[in-house]
């Protein structure tokens, strides 16, 4: 700002054009193109059998994505009584995920949900044309949990109801036919019981992760669900209160906003 003021003061001697030039070059630098905007503008162009493109800076990287129309969502229903008009599926590739599954569900009002390995995020202003697909993405706030997520949490609490069925040595592998479950595997089984399939980033699991974050802010966990489960200080009462707290928080608009979930009325 000091250089700008000096440039203005010299206008009479260096001429208006020179002063404007000084103002231009003295202006503060714009934000880095690597920073993620609040709303990302996603553009996909048709290439052979799929649409290729992306949303620019997203999830602290710049992922390359592909999408193509498919018959149905493969990772489980999001909300009851709400069926998408169309569904697209493809891949997301960045430094963390090479070819990770990607799904976009589109509803009648031009809104939708983009399901990624980083979470499920609200999409809006969706426009489908023969040669391109465009939409705006809120890649900062995840979609809010639904009654389906509440049922998943209740089912998980019922599965992990005693020390006798609690696996205290979780490795995030959940084989069929076992008699004990970790927090993660109880959530996985509950999700499959309720929806038929599992997606580890659906809102129910994200709510639980955020509560664990708050409970263990001073602990250096690599994998929140696994490490909290395996922590010797975690008791069964903590696990049960975790599910109860998640059920309460997911219905609290202030908690949802504070924890980067979109407001339900902003979603399809």
Give the distance, in angstroms, between the N- and C-terminal Cα atoms.
44 Å
**Mean pLDDT, nearest integer?**
88
The proportion of residues in beta strands is: 15-25%
Judged by helices, strands and strand pairing, the structural class is alpha+beta
Across the major sheet, the strand order is 1-2-3-4-5-6-7-8
Number of strand elements:
8
* Helix percentage range: 25-40%
Low-confidence stretches: 1-34
Shape: elongated
| SS summary, helix count | 9
String of helices and strands: HHHEEEEEEEEHHHHHH
- Radius of gyration using CA atoms only: 23 Å
Question: Could you give a short account of the major beta sheet?
Answer: 8 strands, antiparallel, barrel
Quickly describe the structure.
With 268 residues, the protein is α+β, with helices and mostly antiparallel strands. The chain is built from nine helices and eight strands.
Strand-helix topology:
Elements: H1 2-9, H2 11-14, H3 16-26, E1 40-47, E2 50-54, E3 64-70, E4 86-93, E5 100-106, E6 112-116, E7 119-128, E8 132-137, H4 147-159, H5 183-195, H6 203-215, H7 224-230, H8 236-249, H9 253-258
Describe the structure.
With 268 residues, the protein is α+β, with helices and mostly antiparallel strands. Helix content is 33%, strand content 21%. It has 9 helices and 8 strands. It has an 8-stranded antiparallel barrel with strand order 1-2-3-4-5-6-7-8. Strand 4 and strand 5 form a beta hairpin. The protein is elongated, with a radius of gyration of 23 Å. The two termini are 44 Å apart. The relative contact order is 0.11.
């Amino acid at each position: 700002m000091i250089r700008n003021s000096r440039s203005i003061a010299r206008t009479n001697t260096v001429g208006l054009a020179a002063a404007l030039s000084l103002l231009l070059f003295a202006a503060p630098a714009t934000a880095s193109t690597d920073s993620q905007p609040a709303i990302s503008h996603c553009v996909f162009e048709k290439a052979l059998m799929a649409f290729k493109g992306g949303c620019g800076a997203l999830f602290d990287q710049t992922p390359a994505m592909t999408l193509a129309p498919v018959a149905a969502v493969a990772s489980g229903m999001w909300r009851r009584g709400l069926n998408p008009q169309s569904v697209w599926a493809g891949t997301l590739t960045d430094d963390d995920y090479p070819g990770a599954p990607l799904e976009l569900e589109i509803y009648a009002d031009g809104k939708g949900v983009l399901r990624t390995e980083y979470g499920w995020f609200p999409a809006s202003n969706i426009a489908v044309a023969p040669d391109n697909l465009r939409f705006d993405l809120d890649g900062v706030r995840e979609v809010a949990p639904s009654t389906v997520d509440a049922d998943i949490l209740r089912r998980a609490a019922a599965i992990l109801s005693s020390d006798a069925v609690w696996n205290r040595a979780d490795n995030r592998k959940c084989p069929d036919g076992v008699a004990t479950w970790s927090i993660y595997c109880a959530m996985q089984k509950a999700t499959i019981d309720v929806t038929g399939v599992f997606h580890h980033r659906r809102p129910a699991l994200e709510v639980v992760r955020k509560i664990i974050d708050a409970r263990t802010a001073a602990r250096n966990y690599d994998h929140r669900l696994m490490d909290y489960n395996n922590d010797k200080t975690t008791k069964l009462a903590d696990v049960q209160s975790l599910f109860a707290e998640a059920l309460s928080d997911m219905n609290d608009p202030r908690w949802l906003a504070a924890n980067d979930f979109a407001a339900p009325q902003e979603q399809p």
